[in-house]
Amino acid sequence: MIIILKHGASDADIDAVSEKLKEHGYSPNLTRGVEQTIIAAIGAPNLAEKDLVAPQLQALDAVEEVLFVSKPYKLVSRESRPGPTEFAIGQHKGSTPVTLGGKQIVMMAGPCSVENREQLLDTAQMVRDAGATVLRGGAYKPRTSPYDFQGLGLEGLQYLAAAREATGLPVITEVMTPALVEQVCEYADVLQIGARNMQNYDLLREVGRCRTPVMIKRGLSATVEEWLKAAEYILAGGNMNVMFCERGIRTYEPSTRFTLDLSAVPAIKRASHLPIVIDPSQGTGRRDMVAAMSKAAIACGADGLIIEVHPHPEDALSDGQQTLDTKQFTQLMSELKPIAQAVGRTI
Questions:
Q1: Domain extents for the chain?
Q2: What top-level class would CATH report for the domain 2-67?
Q3: Tens of pLDDT along 209-257?
Q4: 184 and 207 in contact (C-beta within 8 Å)?
Q5: Tens of pLDDT, residues 251-289
Q6: What pLDDT is stored for residue 272 in this prediction?
Q7: By the 8 A CB rule, do 79 and 67 touch?
Q8: Fold for domain 87-342?
């Protein structure tokens, strides 16, 4: 159930609605917008309680409308917020904030893994000069093989903070366990939930308790509805600054590492108010396909791209085969601008 309050509703009005919901077994979740204040009623009381509470809420002077949301992902659903969600990335000192979900397409770029300080600082400078607005880099790396490079951990997070200080680029990096959330929040402007953790519900609950923006990648075999429900865990915890990331799903097709499902962009935008980003590097696993899929992603409405870039991909400790060098990334940025303009966006 979604309760839309009248413009100018006071804190006392919000408290009155919240208390009424609690009386009937719901947990209130407040969202304050520029134009509207919305309270989502979380829970599943019995039918009698449901029938009682709606008329009582509608009788309150501050209540504009009471909506019953049929979707299991109530806060994520467009029924809870018809317009698109926009939020700023870059809460840490030294960041140059950028807004995701608006007219500007946010470009996130950097190495798959943070390998050393020099490599990261060089890459950060180069992608910023090419037009990137967020720096990506893995400090903790989930790898299929236990013998592959697993990341530098805390040292890698410190290098990311140093790169932000040097360039002004906000930082996105992956968090793998609930125990690491607090530490990663100290350094990152966006927490990335990897595909293999999309349904790690303890981790989703933990990032829901923080207020750092979260990117949730689609699971390797997840349906769009499962993905939406996973995001609901985060919003239900109170963290409303969430973006989806389509990074390819596992199919029978062997010519690419994964199958990049660009139809997920309009599917998500129809179902949810949250922004969606495309990862053409992971999605294809092929350097020669990154540019084409990046262009297609912008054309079909993506709010951002996250692309792997390394000064020397052939020497990268992870995913070199799908990584652009800095010259290729600079060229791609110039090719994306007219496509963004054609669909009424900017880069």
A1: 2-67, 87-342
A2: alpha beta
A3: 999 999 999 999 999 999 999 999 999 888 999 999 999 999 999 999 9
A4: no
A5: 999 999 999 999 999 999 999 999 999 999 999 999 999
A6: 97
A7: yes
A8: TIM Barrel (3.20.20)
Q: Are 2-67 and 87-342 the same fold in CATH? A: no
Neighbouring residues of 296: CB distance < 8 A, sequence distance ≥ 6: 262
